[in-house]
Write a structure and sequence with these properties.
single chain; alpha/beta; Nucleotidyltransferase, domain 5; seven-stranded mixed β-sheet; 6 helices; globular; RNaseH_sf; RNaseH-like_sf; Integrase catalytic domain-containing protein; nucleic acid binding
Length: about 130
């Protein structure tokens, strides 16, 4: 479904988003392979234009299967979009799996609420975050 929604859209990659690939390469040590499902996930917020309107996609992809774990779409890049995406994803896994969730260093991923959600679920943040929880 998401693939059909995104097919043919014009993506607006900001300087931060364009660096995502390089950031992931550093965090994953260029290892984009996961031995099993729910071992390594990646996420980012992407802006795109649909019929002249800006929309924001916040997906989580599993690096084992390359499947979409969860996603949210919003007309604004707000924290609630990202936390809702996490809630949906966390319903699919038990606590304390040792999962690593890689992201860039965007403000959403540095937010205390986001970091608390990861910690509560026992998920390790793959981004370097300087936040006290």
């Amino acid at each position: 479904m998401v693939a059909s929604i995104l097919d043919g859209l014009e993506f607006n990659h900001t300087a931060e988003a364009c660096r995502l690939h390089e950031i992931f390469r550093g965090l994953l040590n260029r290892d984009f392979h996961a031995e099993k499902p729910n071992q390594k996930w990646v996420t980012d917020v992407t802006e795109f234009s649909l019929f002249g309107e800006k929309l924001y996609l916040s997906p989580i992809l599993d690096l084992h299967s390359r499947d979409l774990v969860s996603y949210t779409i919003s007309d604004r890049p707000v924290l609630g979009m990202v936390t809702s995406m996490l809630d949906k994803a966390f319903e699919k896994i038990p606590d304390d799996t040792g999962l690593i969730l890689h992201s860039d260093q965007g403000w959403q991923y540095q937010h205390k609420q986001y970091q608390r959600m990861l910690k509560k679920k026992g998920v390790y943040s793959g981004s370097v975050v300087k936040t006290k929880i």
